[in-house]
Amino acid sequence: MMRCAVKGGAAHVGVVGGERRSSSSLGGRRSVVRMPEDRGFCCGVRSRAADLAGLEMGRPSAAAGFFRSPRYGRVRATAGVDAEDILPDKVQAKSSGNVLPYVGVACLGAILFGYHLGVVNGALEYLSKDLGIAENAVLQGWVVSTTLAGATVGSFTGGALADKLGRTRTFILDAIPLALGAFLSATAQDVRTMIIGRLLAGVGIGISSALVPLYISEISPTEIRGALGSVNQLFICIGILAALVAGLPLAQNPAWWRTMFGISVVPSILLALGMAVSPESPRWLFQQGKLSQAEAAIKKLYGKEKVTEVMYDLKASGQGSNEADASWFDLFSKRYLKVVSMGAALFLFQQLAGINAVVYYSTSVFRSAGITSDVAASALVSAANVFGTVIASSLMDKQGRKSLLITSFSGMAASMLLLSLSFTWKALAPYSGTLAVVGTVLYVLSFALGAGPVPALLLPEIFASRIRAKAVALSLGMHWICNFFIGLYFLSVVNKFGISTVYLGFASVCALAVLYIAGNVVETKGRSLEEIERALSLPSKADASAFLVSDD
Fold it and tell me: Could you count the other beta carbons within 10 Å of the beta carbon of residue 292?
Protein backbone atom coordinates (compact mmCIF):
# COMPACT_ATOMS: atom_id res chain seq x y z
CA MET A 1 0.00 0.00 0.00
CA MET A 2 1.24 3.51 -0.75
CA ARG A 3 -0.36 6.82 0.09
CA CYS A 4 0.15 10.39 -0.95
CA ALA A 5 -1.15 13.06 1.41
CA VAL A 6 -2.24 16.43 0.11
CA LYS A 7 -1.57 19.37 2.32
CA GLY A 8 -4.25 21.90 2.97
CA GLY A 9 -7.33 19.70 2.76
CA ALA A 10 -8.74 16.36 3.88
CA ALA A 11 -7.52 14.32 0.95
CA HIS A 12 -5.31 11.39 0.16
CA VAL A 13 -4.38 9.17 -2.73
CA GLY A 14 -3.50 5.55 -2.16
CA VAL A 15 -3.13 2.20 -3.83
CA VAL A 16 -5.21 -0.55 -2.31
CA GLY A 17 -5.65 -3.98 -3.79
CA GLY A 18 -4.28 -3.10 -7.22
CA GLU A 19 -6.25 0.10 -7.79
CA ARG A 20 -5.61 3.71 -6.95
CA ARG A 21 -8.17 5.70 -5.00
CA SER A 22 -8.48 9.39 -4.38
CA SER A 23 -10.66 10.52 -1.52
CA SER A 24 -11.79 13.86 -0.18
CA SER A 25 -14.23 15.26 2.30
CA LEU A 26 -17.27 16.84 0.69
CA GLY A 27 -20.09 18.19 2.76
CA GLY A 28 -19.33 15.81 5.62
CA ARG A 29 -19.32 12.77 3.34
CA ARG A 30 -16.35 10.75 2.19
CA SER A 31 -16.15 10.36 -1.56
CA VAL A 32 -13.80 8.04 -3.41
CA VAL A 33 -13.01 7.87 -7.10
CA ARG A 34 -11.38 4.74 -8.46
CA MET A 35 -8.61 5.21 -11.01
CA PRO A 36 -6.51 2.66 -12.92
CA GLU A 37 -3.24 1.67 -11.28
CA ASP A 38 -1.06 2.37 -14.32
CA ARG A 39 -1.37 6.16 -14.10
CA GLY A 40 1.60 8.12 -12.85
CA PHE A 41 -0.34 10.69 -10.87
CA CYS A 42 0.13 10.79 -7.15
CA CYS A 43 1.83 13.71 -5.49
CA GLY A 44 0.90 16.99 -7.08
CA VAL A 45 -2.86 16.36 -7.26
CA ARG A 46 -4.65 18.94 -5.16
CA SER A 47 -7.86 17.12 -4.29
CA ARG A 48 -9.91 19.48 -2.16
CA ALA A 49 -13.60 19.81 -1.44
CA ALA A 50 -13.63 23.05 -3.38
CA ASP A 51 -12.12 21.27 -6.40
CA LEU A 52 -14.82 18.61 -6.43
CA ALA A 53 -17.54 21.15 -5.84
CA GLY A 54 -16.11 23.19 -8.69
CA LEU A 55 -16.43 20.16 -10.98
CA GLU A 56 -20.16 19.89 -10.33
CA MET A 57 -20.83 23.61 -10.57
CA GLY A 58 -18.83 23.98 -13.78
CA ARG A 59 -15.88 25.81 -12.25
CA PRO A 60 -12.80 23.96 -13.55
CA SER A 61 -9.74 23.69 -11.36
CA ALA A 62 -6.42 21.84 -11.20
CA ALA A 63 -8.26 18.76 -10.02
CA ALA A 64 -10.74 19.14 -12.84
CA GLY A 65 -7.82 18.84 -15.23
CA PHE A 66 -6.74 15.64 -13.49
CA PHE A 67 -10.14 13.98 -13.63
CA ARG A 68 -10.60 15.15 -17.23
CA SER A 69 -7.59 13.26 -18.57
CA PRO A 70 -8.51 11.81 -21.98
CA ARG A 71 -8.19 8.23 -20.77
CA TYR A 72 -11.01 8.55 -18.22
CA GLY A 73 -13.82 10.69 -19.53
CA ARG A 74 -15.71 12.95 -17.13
CA VAL A 75 -16.22 12.20 -13.45
CA ARG A 76 -18.87 14.14 -11.52
CA ALA A 77 -19.19 14.47 -7.78
CA THR A 78 -22.74 15.10 -6.62
CA ALA A 79 -23.95 16.13 -3.22
CA GLY A 80 -26.16 13.18 -2.43
CA VAL A 81 -24.32 10.28 -4.02
CA ASP A 82 -21.03 8.61 -3.20
CA ALA A 83 -18.52 9.33 -5.92
CA GLU A 84 -17.32 5.76 -5.38
CA ASP A 85 -20.51 4.55 -7.06
CA ILE A 86 -20.14 6.87 -10.04
CA LEU A 87 -18.37 5.59 -13.13
CA PRO A 88 -17.09 7.91 -15.84
CA ASP A 89 -20.24 8.92 -17.67
CA LYS A 90 -18.64 9.31 -21.05
CA VAL A 91 -15.58 7.63 -22.48
CA GLN A 92 -13.62 9.84 -24.85
CA ALA A 93 -15.58 9.96 -28.10
CA LYS A 94 -13.92 8.65 -31.24
CA SER A 95 -13.27 11.36 -33.78
CA SER A 96 -15.00 11.09 -37.15
CA GLY A 97 -13.23 14.15 -38.54
CA ASN A 98 -9.92 14.34 -40.36
CA VAL A 99 -7.32 17.03 -39.71
CA LEU A 100 -4.77 15.67 -42.19
CA PRO A 101 -5.89 17.76 -45.21
CA TYR A 102 -5.58 20.96 -43.18
CA VAL A 103 -2.18 19.93 -41.77
CA GLY A 104 -1.13 19.26 -45.37
CA VAL A 105 -2.20 22.75 -46.44
CA ALA A 106 -0.27 24.33 -43.55
CA CYS A 107 2.81 22.29 -44.49
CA LEU A 108 2.95 24.13 -47.81
CA GLY A 109 4.36 26.92 -45.65
CA ALA A 110 7.02 24.51 -44.33
CA ILE A 111 7.93 23.43 -47.87
CA LEU A 112 8.34 27.08 -48.90
CA PHE A 113 10.43 27.65 -45.77
CA GLY A 114 12.91 24.95 -46.81
CA TYR A 115 12.79 25.79 -50.51
CA HIS A 116 13.56 29.51 -50.13
CA LEU A 117 16.46 28.71 -47.78
CA GLY A 118 17.93 26.14 -50.17
CA VAL A 119 17.22 27.57 -53.61
CA VAL A 120 19.89 30.28 -53.51
CA ASN A 121 22.76 27.82 -52.85
CA GLY A 122 22.63 26.27 -56.31
CA ALA A 123 21.52 29.42 -58.12
CA LEU A 124 23.94 31.96 -56.63
CA GLU A 125 26.80 31.36 -59.08
CA TYR A 126 24.55 31.72 -62.13
CA LEU A 127 22.45 34.68 -60.97
CA SER A 128 25.63 36.49 -59.96
CA LYS A 129 26.88 36.32 -63.55
CA ASP A 130 23.55 37.49 -64.98
CA LEU A 131 23.22 40.38 -62.52
CA GLY A 132 26.87 41.46 -62.80
CA ILE A 133 27.96 40.72 -59.25
CA ALA A 134 30.18 37.68 -59.92
CA GLU A 135 33.23 39.52 -58.57
CA ASN A 136 31.41 41.23 -55.68
CA ALA A 137 31.35 38.90 -52.66
CA VAL A 138 29.66 41.55 -50.50
CA LEU A 139 26.60 41.81 -52.75
CA GLN A 140 26.45 38.04 -53.07
CA GLY A 141 26.42 37.90 -49.28
CA TRP A 142 23.53 40.36 -49.23
CA VAL A 143 21.53 38.18 -51.64
CA VAL A 144 21.96 35.25 -49.24
CA SER A 145 21.67 36.95 -45.85
CA THR A 146 18.80 39.32 -46.68
CA THR A 147 16.45 36.36 -46.49
CA LEU A 148 17.55 35.67 -42.90
CA ALA A 149 17.07 39.32 -41.95
CA GLY A 150 13.58 39.28 -43.48
CA ALA A 151 12.78 36.03 -41.68
CA THR A 152 13.69 37.63 -38.34
CA VAL A 153 11.25 40.48 -38.99
CA GLY A 154 8.60 38.06 -40.25
CA SER A 155 8.80 35.77 -37.22
CA PHE A 156 8.04 38.64 -34.82
CA THR A 157 5.35 40.08 -37.10
CA GLY A 158 3.67 36.70 -37.52
CA GLY A 159 2.93 36.31 -33.81
CA ALA A 160 1.14 39.63 -33.55
CA LEU A 161 -0.82 39.01 -36.78
CA ALA A 162 -1.85 35.52 -35.67
CA ASP A 163 -3.25 36.95 -32.43
CA LYS A 164 -5.03 39.81 -34.14
CA LEU A 165 -6.34 38.24 -37.36
CA GLY A 166 -6.39 34.55 -36.54
CA ARG A 167 -4.26 31.71 -37.89
CA THR A 168 -5.88 31.08 -41.28
CA ARG A 169 -6.15 34.74 -42.30
CA THR A 170 -2.51 35.26 -41.37
CA PHE A 171 -1.58 32.33 -43.61
CA ILE A 172 -3.50 33.95 -46.48
CA LEU A 173 -1.75 37.26 -45.83
CA ASP A 174 1.61 35.45 -45.63
CA ALA A 175 1.16 34.15 -49.19
CA ILE A 176 1.56 37.73 -50.50
CA PRO A 177 5.26 38.28 -49.57
CA LEU A 178 6.02 34.63 -50.42
CA ALA A 179 4.59 34.91 -53.94
CA LEU A 180 5.74 38.50 -54.59
CA GLY A 181 9.25 37.77 -53.32
CA ALA A 182 9.54 34.73 -55.59
CA PHE A 183 8.24 36.70 -58.60
CA LEU A 184 10.65 39.61 -58.07
CA SER A 185 13.59 37.23 -57.62
CA ALA A 186 12.71 35.33 -60.79
CA THR A 187 12.32 38.48 -62.94
CA ALA A 188 15.11 40.59 -61.40
CA GLN A 189 17.26 42.50 -63.90
CA ASP A 190 19.49 44.06 -61.25
CA VAL A 191 20.78 43.17 -57.80
CA ARG A 192 18.53 45.70 -56.05
CA THR A 193 15.36 43.97 -57.27
CA MET A 194 16.85 40.59 -56.33
CA ILE A 195 17.59 41.77 -52.79
CA ILE A 196 14.06 43.19 -52.40
CA GLY A 197 12.62 39.90 -53.62
CA ARG A 198 14.77 37.89 -51.22
CA LEU A 199 13.81 40.22 -48.36
CA LEU A 200 10.08 39.73 -49.04
CA ALA A 201 10.52 35.96 -49.31
CA GLY A 202 12.38 36.07 -46.00
CA VAL A 203 9.50 37.93 -44.32
CA GLY A 204 7.15 35.26 -45.70
CA ILE A 205 9.14 32.28 -44.42
CA GLY A 206 9.64 34.03 -41.08
CA ILE A 207 5.88 34.30 -40.63
CA SER A 208 5.32 30.69 -41.73
CA SER A 209 8.13 29.39 -39.48
CA ALA A 210 6.13 30.54 -36.45
CA LEU A 211 2.65 29.97 -37.86
CA VAL A 212 2.92 26.41 -39.21
CA PRO A 213 3.84 24.68 -35.89
CA LEU A 214 1.38 26.91 -34.03
CA TYR A 215 -1.58 26.02 -36.27
CA ILE A 216 -0.72 22.31 -36.44
CA SER A 217 -0.41 22.01 -32.65
CA GLU A 218 -3.75 23.76 -32.10
CA ILE A 219 -5.77 21.61 -34.52
CA SER A 220 -4.08 18.22 -33.94
CA PRO A 221 -5.71 15.52 -31.77
CA THR A 222 -3.74 14.90 -28.58
CA GLU A 223 -2.86 11.29 -29.37
CA ILE A 224 -1.09 12.14 -32.66
CA ARG A 225 -0.06 15.75 -32.04
CA GLY A 226 3.61 14.79 -31.74
CA ALA A 227 3.65 12.93 -35.05
CA LEU A 228 1.79 15.68 -36.89
CA GLY A 229 3.94 18.38 -35.28
CA SER A 230 7.15 16.73 -36.48
CA VAL A 231 5.74 16.68 -40.01
CA ASN A 232 6.58 20.40 -40.07
CA GLN A 233 10.31 19.63 -39.90
CA LEU A 234 9.89 16.81 -42.44
CA PHE A 235 8.36 19.16 -45.00
CA ILE A 236 11.11 21.74 -44.39
CA CYS A 237 13.58 18.99 -45.31
CA ILE A 238 11.48 18.14 -48.36
CA GLY A 239 11.56 21.80 -49.37
CA ILE A 240 15.37 21.84 -49.15
CA LEU A 241 15.54 18.63 -51.21
CA ALA A 242 13.15 20.14 -53.77
CA ALA A 243 15.49 23.14 -54.14
CA LEU A 244 18.39 20.74 -54.67
CA VAL A 245 16.51 18.81 -57.36
CA ALA A 246 15.33 22.04 -58.99
CA GLY A 247 18.96 23.05 -59.51
CA LEU A 248 19.96 19.96 -61.48
CA PRO A 249 19.30 21.52 -64.96
CA LEU A 250 21.56 24.51 -64.20
CA ALA A 251 24.68 22.92 -65.70
CA GLN A 252 22.99 22.62 -69.10
CA ASN A 253 20.86 25.79 -68.86
CA PRO A 254 22.49 28.65 -66.90
CA ALA A 255 19.31 30.76 -67.16
CA TRP A 256 17.35 28.07 -65.30
CA TRP A 257 17.89 29.92 -62.02
CA ARG A 258 14.96 32.21 -62.88
CA THR A 259 12.66 29.21 -63.18
CA MET A 260 13.96 27.90 -59.85
CA PHE A 261 12.76 31.04 -58.09
CA GLY A 262 9.58 31.38 -60.16
CA ILE A 263 8.11 27.94 -59.49
CA SER A 264 7.77 28.74 -55.77
CA VAL A 265 4.95 31.13 -56.68
CA VAL A 266 2.70 28.09 -57.24
CA PRO A 267 2.76 26.63 -53.67
CA SER A 268 2.33 30.19 -52.33
CA ILE A 269 -0.94 30.55 -54.24
CA LEU A 270 -2.03 27.05 -53.21
CA LEU A 271 -1.35 27.96 -49.56
CA ALA A 272 -3.67 30.97 -49.79
CA LEU A 273 -6.42 29.02 -51.57
CA GLY A 274 -6.15 26.09 -49.15
CA MET A 275 -6.31 28.27 -46.07
CA ALA A 276 -9.38 30.04 -47.45
CA VAL A 277 -11.34 26.78 -46.96
CA SER A 278 -9.50 25.50 -43.86
CA PRO A 279 -11.05 25.85 -40.39
CA GLU A 280 -9.71 28.46 -38.01
CA SER A 281 -8.04 27.24 -34.82
CA PRO A 282 -10.86 26.46 -32.32
CA ARG A 283 -8.59 27.60 -29.51
CA TRP A 284 -8.09 31.04 -31.06
CA LEU A 285 -11.83 31.37 -31.75
CA PHE A 286 -12.65 30.43 -28.16
CA GLN A 287 -10.08 32.87 -26.84
CA GLN A 288 -11.82 35.59 -28.87
CA GLY A 289 -15.21 34.64 -27.42
CA LYS A 290 -16.52 33.31 -30.77
CA LEU A 291 -18.10 30.20 -29.29
CA SER A 292 -20.41 29.22 -32.14
CA GLN A 293 -17.58 29.53 -34.65
CA ALA A 294 -15.33 27.49 -32.38
CA GLU A 295 -17.95 24.71 -32.26
CA ALA A 296 -18.24 24.78 -36.05
CA ALA A 297 -14.45 24.49 -36.41
CA ILE A 298 -14.33 21.57 -33.94
CA LYS A 299 -17.10 19.81 -35.86
CA LYS A 300 -15.19 20.24 -39.13
CA LEU A 301 -11.90 19.05 -37.65
CA TYR A 302 -12.97 16.19 -35.38
CA GLY A 303 -16.66 15.47 -36.03
CA LYS A 304 -19.80 16.57 -34.21
CA GLU A 305 -19.42 13.96 -31.45
CA LYS A 306 -16.25 15.71 -30.22
CA VAL A 307 -17.76 19.20 -29.89
CA THR A 308 -18.91 18.87 -26.26
CA GLU A 309 -15.68 17.24 -25.12
CA VAL A 310 -13.33 19.77 -26.73
CA MET A 311 -15.44 22.73 -25.61
CA TYR A 312 -15.32 21.34 -22.06
CA ASP A 313 -11.52 21.24 -22.22
CA LEU A 314 -11.36 24.79 -23.51
CA LYS A 315 -13.61 26.04 -20.71
CA ALA A 316 -11.67 24.05 -18.11
CA SER A 317 -8.41 25.65 -19.19
CA GLY A 318 -9.86 29.13 -18.76
CA GLN A 319 -9.18 30.08 -22.38
CA GLY A 320 -12.41 31.99 -22.49
CA SER A 321 -11.35 34.30 -19.68
CA ASN A 322 -11.74 38.05 -19.88
CA GLU A 323 -7.97 38.63 -19.80
CA ALA A 324 -6.78 40.95 -22.55
CA ASP A 325 -4.44 39.60 -25.21
CA ALA A 326 -0.89 39.47 -23.91
CA SER A 327 1.50 42.23 -24.93
CA TRP A 328 5.15 41.63 -25.77
CA PHE A 329 6.08 42.95 -22.32
CA ASP A 330 3.82 40.33 -20.68
CA LEU A 331 6.14 37.61 -21.98
CA PHE A 332 8.81 38.84 -19.58
CA SER A 333 6.54 39.06 -16.55
CA LYS A 334 7.11 36.76 -13.58
CA ARG A 335 4.05 34.75 -14.61
CA TYR A 336 5.47 33.69 -17.99
CA LEU A 337 9.22 34.39 -17.90
CA LYS A 338 10.32 30.86 -17.00
CA VAL A 339 8.41 29.08 -19.74
CA VAL A 340 9.28 31.74 -22.34
CA SER A 341 12.98 31.53 -21.45
CA MET A 342 12.73 27.75 -21.84
CA GLY A 343 11.46 28.16 -25.39
CA ALA A 344 14.17 30.68 -26.28
CA ALA A 345 16.84 28.43 -24.73
CA LEU A 346 15.80 25.42 -26.81
CA PHE A 347 16.22 27.36 -30.05
CA LEU A 348 19.44 28.91 -28.78
CA PHE A 349 20.89 25.45 -28.12
CA GLN A 350 19.56 24.22 -31.48
CA GLN A 351 21.48 26.88 -33.39
CA LEU A 352 24.62 27.06 -31.21
CA ALA A 353 24.97 23.27 -31.50
CA GLY A 354 26.27 23.92 -35.00
CA ILE A 355 23.77 22.46 -37.46
CA ASN A 356 24.14 25.24 -40.02
CA ALA A 357 27.93 25.18 -39.70
CA VAL A 358 28.04 21.41 -40.24
CA VAL A 359 25.82 21.62 -43.32
CA TYR A 360 27.85 24.56 -44.66
CA TYR A 361 31.15 22.74 -44.16
CA SER A 362 29.88 19.32 -45.32
CA THR A 363 31.03 19.88 -48.93
CA SER A 364 34.66 20.27 -47.81
CA VAL A 365 34.34 17.28 -45.49
CA PHE A 366 33.05 15.05 -48.26
CA ARG A 367 35.74 16.23 -50.67
CA SER A 368 38.36 15.13 -48.13
CA ALA A 369 36.83 11.65 -48.36
CA GLY A 370 36.95 11.67 -52.16
CA ILE A 371 33.32 12.71 -52.77
CA THR A 372 33.86 15.59 -55.19
CA SER A 373 30.26 16.15 -56.28
CA ASP A 374 28.61 18.97 -54.33
CA VAL A 375 25.19 17.64 -55.34
CA ALA A 376 26.03 14.17 -53.98
CA ALA A 377 27.26 15.67 -50.71
CA SER A 378 24.14 17.81 -50.30
CA ALA A 379 21.90 14.88 -51.23
CA LEU A 380 23.52 12.64 -48.59
CA VAL A 381 23.09 15.27 -45.86
CA SER A 382 19.49 15.95 -46.89
CA ALA A 383 18.67 12.24 -47.02
CA ALA A 384 20.02 11.78 -43.46
CA ASN A 385 17.89 14.73 -42.36
CA VAL A 386 14.71 13.34 -43.93
CA PHE A 387 15.36 9.80 -42.63
CA GLY A 388 15.95 11.01 -39.08
CA THR A 389 12.84 13.20 -39.15
CA VAL A 390 10.68 10.27 -40.32
CA ILE A 391 11.97 8.17 -37.41
CA ALA A 392 11.33 11.05 -34.99
CA SER A 393 7.78 11.39 -36.27
CA SER A 394 7.06 7.73 -35.51
CA LEU A 395 8.59 7.96 -32.01
CA MET A 396 7.29 11.37 -30.91
CA ASP A 397 4.09 10.12 -29.27
CA LYS A 398 5.69 6.90 -27.97
CA GLN A 399 9.03 7.96 -26.49
CA GLY A 400 8.06 11.54 -25.75
CA ARG A 401 9.58 14.93 -26.56
CA LYS A 402 12.04 15.17 -23.68
CA SER A 403 13.66 11.77 -24.20
CA LEU A 404 14.11 12.45 -27.92
CA LEU A 405 15.74 15.80 -27.17
CA ILE A 406 18.20 14.20 -24.73
CA THR A 407 19.00 11.37 -27.16
CA SER A 408 19.40 13.82 -30.03
CA PHE A 409 21.78 16.25 -28.30
CA SER A 410 23.79 13.32 -26.86
CA GLY A 411 24.24 11.89 -30.36
CA MET A 412 25.17 15.32 -31.69
CA ALA A 413 27.81 15.76 -28.97
CA ALA A 414 29.36 12.35 -29.75
CA SER A 415 29.32 13.09 -33.49
CA MET A 416 30.96 16.49 -33.00
CA LEU A 417 33.65 14.87 -30.85
CA LEU A 418 34.28 12.32 -33.63
CA LEU A 419 34.51 15.11 -36.21
CA SER A 420 36.96 17.08 -34.06
CA LEU A 421 39.18 14.03 -33.48
CA SER A 422 39.15 13.09 -37.17
CA PHE A 423 40.83 16.42 -37.97
CA THR A 424 43.45 16.38 -35.18
CA TRP A 425 44.27 12.89 -33.93
CA LYS A 426 47.27 11.63 -35.91
CA ALA A 427 46.45 7.98 -35.22
CA LEU A 428 43.21 8.47 -37.15
CA ALA A 429 44.87 10.26 -40.10
CA PRO A 430 44.53 7.31 -42.54
CA TYR A 431 40.78 7.19 -41.84
CA SER A 432 40.15 10.91 -41.34
CA GLY A 433 38.09 11.41 -44.50
CA THR A 434 35.83 8.44 -43.83
CA LEU A 435 35.42 9.32 -40.16
CA ALA A 436 34.56 12.91 -41.05
CA VAL A 437 31.81 11.76 -43.41
CA VAL A 438 30.46 9.29 -40.83
CA GLY A 439 30.54 11.98 -38.13
CA THR A 440 28.71 14.48 -40.36
CA VAL A 441 25.97 12.03 -41.34
CA LEU A 442 25.52 10.83 -37.74
CA TYR A 443 25.35 14.43 -36.55
CA VAL A 444 22.63 15.36 -39.05
CA LEU A 445 20.75 12.14 -38.26
CA SER A 446 20.93 12.86 -34.52
CA PHE A 447 19.78 16.44 -35.10
CA ALA A 448 16.78 15.25 -37.08
CA LEU A 449 15.77 12.83 -34.29
CA GLY A 450 15.01 15.59 -31.78
CA ALA A 451 16.87 18.91 -31.85
CA GLY A 452 15.38 19.70 -35.26
CA PRO A 453 11.66 18.88 -34.94
CA VAL A 454 11.00 18.96 -31.18
CA PRO A 455 11.49 22.66 -30.26
CA ALA A 456 8.95 23.89 -32.83
CA LEU A 457 6.52 21.19 -31.61
CA LEU A 458 7.11 21.61 -27.87
CA LEU A 459 6.83 25.38 -27.71
CA PRO A 460 3.17 25.71 -28.75
CA GLU A 461 2.41 22.93 -26.24
CA ILE A 462 3.98 24.58 -23.19
CA PHE A 463 2.92 28.18 -23.86
CA ALA A 464 -0.41 29.31 -22.41
CA SER A 465 -3.06 30.16 -25.00
CA ARG A 466 -2.93 33.84 -24.06
CA ILE A 467 0.75 34.17 -25.02
CA ARG A 468 1.16 31.23 -27.44
CA ALA A 469 1.43 33.09 -30.75
CA LYS A 470 3.74 35.85 -29.50
CA ALA A 471 5.90 33.48 -27.43
CA VAL A 472 6.39 31.13 -30.39
CA ALA A 473 7.24 34.16 -32.55
CA LEU A 474 9.78 35.38 -29.98
CA SER A 475 11.46 31.96 -29.81
CA LEU A 476 11.59 31.70 -33.61
CA GLY A 477 13.02 35.21 -33.69
CA MET A 478 15.84 33.95 -31.48
CA HIS A 479 16.33 31.12 -34.01
CA TRP A 480 16.68 33.53 -36.95
CA ILE A 481 18.95 35.97 -35.10
CA CYS A 482 21.32 33.13 -34.13
CA ASN A 483 21.14 31.76 -37.66
CA PHE A 484 22.09 35.16 -39.07
CA PHE A 485 25.11 35.74 -36.80
CA ILE A 486 26.43 32.18 -37.12
CA GLY A 487 26.33 32.54 -40.91
CA LEU A 488 28.03 35.93 -40.64
CA TYR A 489 30.92 34.96 -38.34
CA PHE A 490 31.38 31.20 -38.78
CA LEU A 491 34.19 31.37 -41.36
CA SER A 492 36.01 34.07 -39.37
CA VAL A 493 35.92 31.93 -36.22
CA VAL A 494 37.11 28.86 -38.16
CA ASN A 495 40.02 30.83 -39.65
CA LYS A 496 41.04 32.06 -36.20
CA PHE A 497 40.66 28.89 -34.10
CA GLY A 498 40.54 26.03 -36.61
CA ILE A 499 37.63 23.77 -37.52
CA SER A 500 38.59 21.11 -34.94
CA THR A 501 38.37 23.59 -32.05
CA VAL A 502 35.07 24.97 -33.34
CA TYR A 503 33.61 21.45 -33.56
CA LEU A 504 34.79 20.77 -30.00
CA GLY A 505 32.96 23.92 -28.91
CA PHE A 506 29.79 22.69 -30.60
CA ALA A 507 30.15 19.36 -28.75
CA SER A 508 30.33 21.27 -25.44
CA VAL A 509 27.15 23.19 -26.30
CA CYS A 510 25.38 19.88 -27.02
CA ALA A 511 26.49 18.50 -23.64
CA LEU A 512 25.20 21.63 -21.87
CA ALA A 513 21.90 21.24 -23.73
CA VAL A 514 21.50 17.70 -22.37
CA LEU A 515 21.97 18.95 -18.80
CA TYR A 516 19.55 21.85 -19.30
CA ILE A 517 16.84 19.69 -20.88
CA ALA A 518 17.12 17.02 -18.18
CA GLY A 519 16.60 19.60 -15.43
CA ASN A 520 14.10 22.03 -16.96
CA VAL A 521 12.03 20.64 -19.84
CA VAL A 522 8.71 18.94 -19.04
CA GLU A 523 7.25 15.97 -20.91
CA THR A 524 4.01 16.73 -22.75
CA LYS A 525 3.15 13.58 -24.70
CA GLY A 526 -0.38 12.26 -24.26
CA ARG A 527 -1.73 15.52 -22.79
CA SER A 528 -4.09 17.98 -24.41
CA LEU A 529 -2.94 21.58 -24.70
CA GLU A 530 -5.50 22.52 -22.04
CA GLU A 531 -4.19 19.91 -19.58
CA ILE A 532 -0.63 21.11 -20.13
CA GLU A 533 -1.67 24.72 -19.58
CA ARG A 534 -3.47 23.86 -16.34
CA ALA A 535 -0.53 21.81 -15.10
CA LEU A 536 2.04 24.51 -15.78
CA SER A 537 -0.14 27.01 -13.94
CA LEU A 538 0.08 24.95 -10.72
CA PRO A 539 1.90 26.77 -7.92
CA SER A 540 4.98 24.58 -7.80
CA LYS A 541 7.22 22.76 -10.24
CA ALA A 542 6.59 19.52 -8.31
CA ASP A 543 2.86 19.82 -8.95
CA ALA A 544 3.39 20.41 -12.66
CA SER A 545 5.92 17.58 -12.95
CA ALA A 546 3.55 15.15 -11.22
CA PHE A 547 0.72 16.19 -13.50
CA LEU A 548 2.82 15.87 -16.65
CA VAL A 549 4.45 12.61 -15.64
CA SER A 550 4.94 10.12 -18.46
CA ASP A 551 2.37 7.42 -18.95
CA ASP A 552 5.02 4.74 -19.15
Answer: 8
